[in-house]
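Minutes, project check-in
Item: structure for the 308-residue chain
Input as provided by the requester:
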Amino acid sequence: MNKIFFLWMGVAVSTMTWNTSFAQEEQESAEVYLEEYTDEFQESFFEALKQKGIQNYDRAIDLFLKCKQLDPNDDVVDYELSKAYLLSKKFVQAQEYAIEALHAEPTDYWYLENLVSVLEQQGSPLEAIKAQIPYENQKLKENLALCYFKRKQYTDAQRILKELGSSPLAQELTRKINDSIQGEKDKMAVPVVVEQKEERNTDDPVANFRVELEKLLAASDYKNALTVSKEALDTYPLQPYFYFAYGTALNNTSNPNKAIEVLESGLDYLLEDGPLQNNMYRELAKAYTQIGNSQKANEYLNKINSGL
């Protein structure tokens, strides 16, 4: 009995004078169907993540396509399909679903980063598909500049920054790029150690975000931590603690796959080993365990420095 049939029956019940018990039975049957539909989607989705984690990409793609049939408008499925196709070296399909996901959520950094990866593996510039994406979105441009910065494509990042004007992120990222370029020029020189004094500023929004997130995580309030950490990371995408907080919140709200991406991305911003790095390794181990990839989970567990 399919969904269309239940919809038809619902109309029939509302327009004909059938008895109450029959109408109630049909309503209960429809509710059972929708519960099964949700279960089927979730089971297929998480099994697909597991298959992708063990490099069984064709099986993962089949399962993600099944999810796509069950919910054609789910942008997370588009994103995962793109990644699975990319791992299978099927670039045309990977690009198609990457663009579809980005249209659904133009401000999502990881959707854009995935599209850049697809294009990069094809040796194709983003300009080739600029007309197919919501390029005029300001946040998308900020994410693109950040993406190029992480790839050490400083010239491309600077080109995008020129389009952003003097936004806080543009100014901060410009300083980071200039420091990185200067650092590459000076890497053969003898480093000069500069003593830095810790400064506390009660009006520092970064510090305020961190204090709030520490309280939420300590209270295991992951739902609110998810909202606050995403806002913090969107506003200050160069702060590694916000990657940890967002990844932890994702891990504890049934989204381990995205948690992995967030946490592994955050590792790029760590300047030194320490407790934060260990905490990120623990969350990565937990996330990989949740998707059934024990090998990667053990890799991160072995990286934890017990002396910290």
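Outcome recorded: The two ends are 59 Å apart (CA to CA).
No further action items on this chain.
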